Amino acid sequence: MKLLLVALSAAMFQLPAKPPMKMGLWDSEGVVHMTMPNAPAMMAGMMNRPIHVRSCMTPESYAKAMGSSQQIGKDCARTNEVFTGKGYSFDISCKGKTTGHFEMTFDSDTAMHGTGHLDLSQGRASGATSDSTTTMKWVGPDCGGISPDKPEIIK
After folding, report:
1. Residue 78 is part of which domain span?
2. Using an 8 Å Cβ cutoff, are 26 and 151 in contact?
3. Which end of the chain has fewer CB within 10 Å, C or N?
4. Contact at 8 Å (CB) between 28 and 138?
């Protein structure tokens, strides 16, 4: 989920002069559904949990999150990035052959929703996947005590 909230361009990618969303406090709710055949039963409750996050979006954190073709983590990179006034999408590829695709749609400057899919099988026939959905709503211009660099996990 964090990856989806924070990750949100190949060489031609350019950020719009004005972000397509309001800056300030954002409320995000989502669910990550993981499929791991042959996973121990004790992991089942950990694989399909809702998550609620509050984050602070500033022009700087927006530019950092949407930076042109930046790496995501140590061994992962974004490719096939497409940014329009109504959305943003990209593919992800990580060492170990984990791959995926993420999409975010800007419903308005105060609401957006997105999806993500990861193939976690790392080239094996295990069929391990992760699918996520998220909705984000603008709360207001004041972030309170939430730092742009540290979202707050509510649940």
Report:
1. 2-12+22-153
2. no
3. C
4. no
